Amino acid sequence: MKVTEIGIKKSRIHCCSNGYRQRNNAEHEGYGGALTEKRITENNIANADSRGDRVLEQILSSENLNRAYKQVKKNKGAHGVDGMKVENLLQYLKDNGKELRETIEKGKYHPSPVRRVEIPKDNGKMRKLGIPTAVDRVIQQAIMQVLSLMFEPQFSETSYGFRPKRSAQDAIKKSKEYANEGYTYVVDMDLEKFFDVVNQSKMIEIISRTVKDGRVISLINKYLKAGVVENKRFKETDIGLAQGGNISPLCSNIMLNELDKELERRGIRFVRYADDMLLFAKCKRSAERILANIDPYIENKLKLRVNREKTSVSYIGRIKFLGYGFYPSKAGIKARVHSKKHSQNEKQN
């Protein structure tokens, strides 16, 4: 990951007060937001000008963009590198929306880098988030709304994260169902720093199988490579997905759907919520074989990493999944909110 000191260019448009300014009106285009002096360039993508299934027109439709704006406004959130708050979006889009649309249509739009922040995790460590500008959040949301309709029918029945009308509780319910069918041993799979190590070329390849509009593929690629700003320094992003971006959850599901389909092909029961997953077996030996056989596929085909220290094969009553633990009762395997006390009691028993 290359790091450079950020340079600031003055512009005719000044929409913020933190020192980041729009480069010019053409690239600003309503959504542009604080482009740095370092130009973000995309990889050469074959047929980037191909209109294919004309997905870009769906993304840029007034109805879709308005719905995206309303969702971003509802979600609120912190400002990006340009300092623009969500409250300022409406007027900004009114003034610049037409030019923005034209810039995206012509393939000349360049997203701003995300602003890197850290938030505490439950285990006391820190999670790095990348916050896009408010304008880029609208564009990403517009992309996600259209692409999710294309990819949802492809997703597996037992994946639950970041999907409409599905929840962590549904994942726990399905896990209990498998356990009560006799699948009481699990591979508690941990993918090492999943969002940080996603292979972008593989990601683009998978998306391109479904999305035939080269302009959309090019735009997504630009977002993947937009870079991050951390401590006022710009870093290129050649790998990974920025946690905090509106398209990142969908991209993560598109990538991990490849694993879901492979597990289904092999007849392996699983429950996945984002990058948290359990693979189910009827005995410990079978679960160990599942792990040994699926590991090469994950690392060689998907270019992801299995965290061997955190991945384990265990009786379901000894694991924690999405904040829940499982325990046997007269009525079968049940689930409850996991606690250290429960964990200690289970180990003693």
What does this molecule look like?
By secondary structure, the chain is an alpha+beta fold. Helices cover 41% and strands 16% of the residues. The protein is built from 12 helices and 12 strands. The chain has a 5-stranded mixed beta sheet with strand order 1-6-5-2-3, with no helix packed on it. A 4-stranded antiparallel beta sheet has the order 7-8-4-9, with helices on both faces. Strand 2 and strand 3 form a beta hairpin. Helix 8 packs antiparallel against helix 9 (214-224). It starts with a strand and ends with a helix. Mean pLDDT is 85; it is low at 2-44 and 341-349.
How far apart the termini lie comes to 48 Å
Work out the radius of gyration: 22 Å
Compute the number of helices.
12
- What composes the largest sheet? 5 strands, mixed
Low-confidence stretches: 2-44, 341-349
Number of strands: 12
Strand content: 15-25%
Q: What would the average pLDDT be, to the nearest integer?
A: 85
One letter per element, helices H and strands E, the order comes to EHHHHEEHHEHHHEEHEEHEEEEH
The computed structural class is alpha+beta
Helix fraction by DSSP (H/I, runs of at least 4): 40-55%
Q: Which strand order spans the largest sheet, edge to edge or round the barrel?
A: 1-6-5-2-3
Shape: elongated
